[in-house]
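Homework-ish question, so no full write-ups if that breaks the rules, but can someone show me the predicted structure for this set?
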Amino acid sequence: MARMKFICDAERCIECNGCVTACKNEHEVPWGVNRRRLVTVNDGKPGERSISVACMHCTDAPCMAVCPTDCFYKTDEGVVLHDKDLCIGCGYCFYACPFGAPQFPQAGAFGLRGKMDKCTFCAGGPEVNNSEAEFKKYGRNRLAEGKLPACAEMCSTKALLAGDGEIIASIYRQRAQTRKKGEEVWGWAMAYKMDGKIAPLGVKS
Amino acid sequence: MSRRIAVAVASALALSLGACSEIDQTAKSEKIYAGKKDERAADGANFGGDKKKWEATLAQRNNSQNEYLRTDTKK
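A: Not a homework solution, just the prediction itself:
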């Protein structure tokens, strides 16, 4: 069973915003809502790094835990989705999410907040696959078409990888071992200030 | 005495093997999804419920993200 994940290779990301544009275009996301965005660390300084961030489709998603209407669910592939018919736009998920993934359209009067919108891993939502209703509410369902998320497939440097966690982790590992650097930029070593190196292919670290 | 040693060895073996199992990663939440049921990705017009075919198509797409495979470059 595939477990869908994203990895962004900070050594390759050139901050072109192609992934952001691809996402907005693919799903016709309204003005003010950004399902994906770029975060740059040490912007303008030598050695700056950028990563593309969206919903990380957490294994134990905090948005699911805090939702008062229980509108979140997880697909067989580990993609976290929600039912917009149930969402009341309370914003609890926004406060719970460590990645700022939930977005709220605010085009109405008096700062009215609409129903939550977030990255769907291009898997649509609880409507008939590839139907008009699904597209209007959640955007295109590329997974049902046998395709990967548009952001990753559009990425010119293939910095953003999407798909089965096992496969994309092995792609990233092979890259880091081939170029002999970059493994410290993204992952456990960076998060926990470790000096450890990535284990060779086939060996679990 | 030898029985105690045998029990201790058996317990140690059982404990050491216990660490080999994969930790369950499913979310332990009391929450139950209250919304509409979603179709599986393999269902629908494109794959007609053939999960194997869908997984194979997706795996092919997945691996095409690897330039080392795509360009047939040896590491």
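Now go work out the reasoning yourself. Hint: The mean pLDDT of chain B is 83.
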